[in-house]
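fyi for ur records
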Amino acid sequence: MSALRADSLVLFGVTGDLTSRKLLPALYELERGGRLDLPLVGVARSEWDTTKLRQHVAESLLGRDRAVVDRLASRFEFVQGDYNAPATFDRLREVLAGAHCPVAYLAIPPSLFDEVAAGMAGAGMADGGRIVVEKPFGRDLASAIELNQILHRHYAEKDIFRIDHFLGKEPVQNLLVFRFANSLLEPVWNRHHIASVRVTMAESFGIEGRGRFYDGVGAVRDVVQNHLLEMVALLAMEPPISEDADALRDEKVKVLRSMRPVDPSAVVRGQYIGYRDEHDVPADSDTETYAALSLEIESWRWAGVPFCIRAGKGMADTVTEAEIEFQRPPHLLFSNESRVAQPNRLRFRMKPDDTISLTVQAKRPGPDMTSRPVDLSVGYGDGEGDGAEAYERLLGDAIIGDPRLFARQDSVEEAWRVIEPLLAGPESTVPYPLGSWGPSEADRVLPDGGCWSAESLCWE
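which gave:
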């Protein structure tokens, strides 16, 4: 890899919740593994100093190895000031003491990105450096384009790292490896052998007091436009021509470009009963906490195969998975009127456990020549996690300059293009009970005879 390793990491918004919950635990793991070895600078408007920041680092990491925490805290310096004041960045430049490749991590609202990027450039710290920004990458296609233009005024595309912690999760990376490290899949990974694909991201909890944020976002913007479209791209992409970062991201973009914009009439939006009683949620809110839709990928490999996705809060269980249903055998020899052989299915389950399973047919014990489903599975342990391991991987990649697991400008804009019709004039939400699998109306986005509202896996 030819990218220059960072010689400093600057955390804008260092006093915020994201830093405490995700970034500091990730930096702790990097420090514990001997992979940090660079100065850290926190920047915020709060009236803190370096002593206060180091104390905050220690308090945020209580219960961890004290020697590691002390080493991490000692790396931090603090710069206080407004993001739109050139003096703030002049002080930052002095603290960095001639760093040639500073990485600026923007743990701040997108409305402040322009101020910080301009400040870094004005102080001569953008040229040669990198900038890391958190999702959401805009609210729609127009705002995503505008946000990219803002960043490109001061940073080249190769130096912009759009971080989505979902892509740093081990099960998501395992999905990519499983697809392309096993030659037995390639001959059947197409429309001739696969009947449909279903992707689920269900959460048993609600909005957890984030009404002010969530009501302005909803399920489509929160996870469909990014997480679930990323999963579909990983499932549907062609093999990259190399391990180069752009080779991988090129193939994902091709998948997104092959998708038709979603037809709003073919989407079901739901809202769990009680959502409007949540704090900071308007009494007449129509924000969706559930969305189900079907995507079409117009390519030689996937034409005619429905990719059905759903995401919801307040569901019966917390499940993130992708299931591939293969075509039925052309002639069902080993079935009868009461027992019909089911098609083979391949499941990538990321939550609540990290498991890959293949459902095949084997003889049912007894005198009859009928089949029953049998699961061949391998588990990798608990898939829950708190997201820190994903941030550890992605922060480490940003430091060494590896962009493979970060979103590129064209993929962000293509994803917004696909779901743009849902944002303009969506149908009203339909209610569903807390602890259910969502509204029964969602079944209509599936192929004929499908269901997923009554239970997690109606295929079984």
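The domain at 8-134 is CATH 3.40.50.720 (Rossmann fold). thats all i got for now
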